Amino acid sequence: MHFTGTSTPPQMHQIAPFSGFYSSINQVVHSTLPPWPHSIFQPSSRSLRDSYSIEQLLIHCANAIETNDSTSTQQILWVLNNIAPSDGDSSERLTCAFLRALVTRAARYGTCKVIPSIPNVQKPIYKFSMMELASFVDLTPWHRFGFTAANAAILEAVESYSVIHIIDLSSTHCMQIPTLIEALANRVKIPTLVKLTIASATNNIRPIFNISYQDLGTKLVNFARSRNIVLEFKVISSTASNGFLSLIDELKIQQLVHPKRDEALVVNCHMMLHYIPEETLNPQMNFLDSSSASFRTMFLKAVHSLNPTLVLLVDEDADLTSKSLVCRLRSAFNYLWIPYDIIDTYLPHDSKQRQWYEADIGWKIENVVAEDGSRRVERAEAKNKCVERMRNAKFREVGFGEAAVDEVRSMLDEHAAGWGLKREQEHLMLTWKGHSVVFATAWIPNSFDQ
């Protein structure tokens, strides 16, 4: 970020080895032989360590937990623990994270008789300073890809406006905004006013910030002033859990009191749509049926009613919405190997920054696997489903110009080999070793539906 510098990585919390969970069960996992005779599971077999076999073990374990099969649950947990050290390679650490999540689920829902005796291990939540969060975000293109694509699209869309109002709904606490301010300041026609509105923070979305939004706003206003831009910063108490209802209501009131004239309204939704509850939170909801619409559908329709100049939607290309634990686990396993592989490429084994990332991914895995109902907030949808939602909400995709594509490619050149960019129809897709990671889309209200 332009208004930050380098910093020493923080001391992240140390996650105790998984074997510590079982200290009260006769040292079962410390043995080299299974605690039951003639087991069909033999962790010494090399075949168990390939990704397909590990995925099948995790699926069998999830099924055993869901069917209250105590014996199979204990057997598979034992095998997984013996092949998944917390300090192993990326595949082993990924498996260890899923193992912990399965243990948490079994303990929470009382599936396995042995699980209630497992101590409740509380992992402290690390709160990032501004410098640390900027370093966290800048390390890989995971977030920078969306920042770069969205900012380029915003610059093109607001070129003729003197006032720009940005609704920044982002999980990274305005880390995108300084670069956008810098770009606006370098234009021939500098806007007379930039208004920035954000929703108040939610406690269950990582990464967690350690400064108040009032302090953040002061820093952003001062930074904008140093670039000869007048910035108004406003925080509205609102949360993703109800589709930012109070934020939308406040924006509607503002439009009634102060109708737009020469003002562009940009809604920037970065890694935030998947935190708004969708249909699987209530199986009777149907996003095609407005009478039973989820908060996610209602949010998009409410955004359409504001008649925005541009809507940016950036999110992870994964499907974690299934009501089936097995389906969610499989999707998460086949998507979240990517950040573990990235970590091994970018960071040394003893890096503190590695702990930032793995703590963040581990929380995501635990939420997907161990939580249900309103506590399960990680409900990402595949790109195609998000595109369908936007079209059903009467938006039209406008895509990204060549300038945006060039900006993204230039940004990717700053990072290690392995990252790629796919341009499919109107959207952009960030890839890692050919696998889809994050998508970016740009939308305007369909003129035929105004």
From TrEMBL:
InterPro entries: TF_GRAS. Keywords: Transcription, Transcription regulation. The keyword Transcription applies. Residues 133-198 are annotated as: VHIID. Transmembrane segments: none annotated. A motif (VHIID) lies at residues 164-168. It comes from the Eukaryota. Pfam families: GRAS. Residues 370-444 are annotated as: SAW. Belongs to the GRAS family. This is Scarecrow-like protein 32. It comes from Daucus carota subsp. sativus (Carrot).
